[in-house]
Amino acid sequence: FTADRTVLIVAHRLTTFQHADRILVLDRPEEDGAATICEVGTHAELMASDTRYRRLYLRQAATMTSAPGGL
């Protein structure tokens, strides 16, 4: 389906990105409002250290598993 293609996915549900070849995490500083890339890696790479992605993913996973219907 996506062989030899670049696909840009924008989503709030971070489980969407688990199988992506590369994840770019954007951050929007309050002072100027411009989004910047703050982290790049695979899901495994970003989960292996203390990254913004990991903290957001774990927070969202905890919220989703406690919600009706789960992940």
How would you describe this structure to a colleague?
By secondary structure, the protein is α+β, with helices and mostly antiparallel strands. It contains two helices and two strands; from the N terminus they run E-E-H-H. It has a two-stranded antiparallel sheet with strand order 1-2. The relative contact order is 0.17. The mean pLDDT is 85.
Strand-helix topology:
Layout: E1 23-27, E2 36-41, H1 43-47, H2 52-66
Antiparallel strand pairs: 1-2
Report the end-to-end length measured between terminal Cα atoms.
24 Å
> What's the total helix number?
2
Per DSSP E runs of 2 or more residues, the count of β-strands stands at 2
* Strand portion: 15-25%
Question: How many strands, which pairing sense, and closed or not: the largest β-sheet?
Answer: 2 strands, antiparallel
- Share in helix: 25-40%
In one word, what is the shape?
Answer: globular
Helix-strand sequence: EEHH
- What is the multimeric organization of the chains shown? single chain
Average pLDDT, rounded to a whole number, is: 85
Backbone structural class: alpha+beta
Give unreliable regions as ranges: none
Using only CA atoms, what is the Rg? 14 Å
Strand order of the largest sheet: 1-2
